[in-house]
Amino acid sequence: MTVIVTAFERSPDRGRGLARDMRVRWALEEVGQPYEVRLLSFEAMKEPAHLALHPFGQIPTYEEGDLALFESGPIVFHIAERHAGLLPDDANARARAITWMFAALNTVEPPIFDRDLARILEREQPWHEQRLRVLEDSIRKRLAGLSSRLGDADWLDGAFSAGDLLMVTVLRRLHGSSLLGEHPNLSAYVARGEARPAYQRAFDAQLAVFTAASTG
Ligand code: GTB
Known about the structure:
Blueprint: E1 3-8, H1 21-31, E2 36-40, H2 42-45, H3 48-51, E3 61-64, E4 67-70, H4 72-82, H5 91-121, H6 128-150, H7 162-171, H8 178-181, H9 184-194, H10 197-215
Parallel strand pairs: 1-2
Antiparallel strand pairs: 1-3, 3-4
Helix pairs in contact: 1-4, 1-7, 1-10, 5-6, 5-7, 7-9
The protein binds S-(P-nitrobenzyl)glutathione.
The site of S-(P-nitrobenzyl)glutathione has 13 residues, from helix 4.
């Protein structure tokens, strides 16, 4: 059955793979599931046809036959549950991998995403610097906990899992800031994720969309 994922027609990240379709593409590549992409303009995302798939008018969505999902976390979870390769078979190890998926999205991503938003939307505010410091303190606390848990392991809990996949996509947003560099083991962890062939196929696919939109 054909899987269809939605993505930005023209991603504001200019092909850096920071939009959340990237994690869905990566998961599909990891499990060897082919997919098609429906590209959407910002206007099309708010039209009834897309709102029927996504109540908040965002990307990504996932369609597979008569199943339609929104939210990158549950989409990656669905892919990981249906195909081998992203969740361990052992029940306890599986529960721990799922815990890391939630930790990436609920605990680590919020201050990282808020910092990016603040840098874009609140730059002119008189309290901008103060807010940035608060968010960066919060990120530092999360990274310290994560770094100490990861230690010198390759992945968060044994073999690479959907928990690592989500965590790496979250940490990638810190590229270009010194925050990640404060923890060499986390920088190496992100680099390890990005070196995976499935990651590279997903990255190249989303970059090709941006390149085509820029040259077309
Ligand atoms: N919680 C949802 C999920 O995980 O799927 C969040 C989905 C979401 O934020 N989607 C964004 C979107 O559709 C794109 S990914 N925004 C359009 C809108 O809300 O109208 C967020 C994103 C946007 C831009 C960049 N960037 O330019 O770097 C990175 C990430």
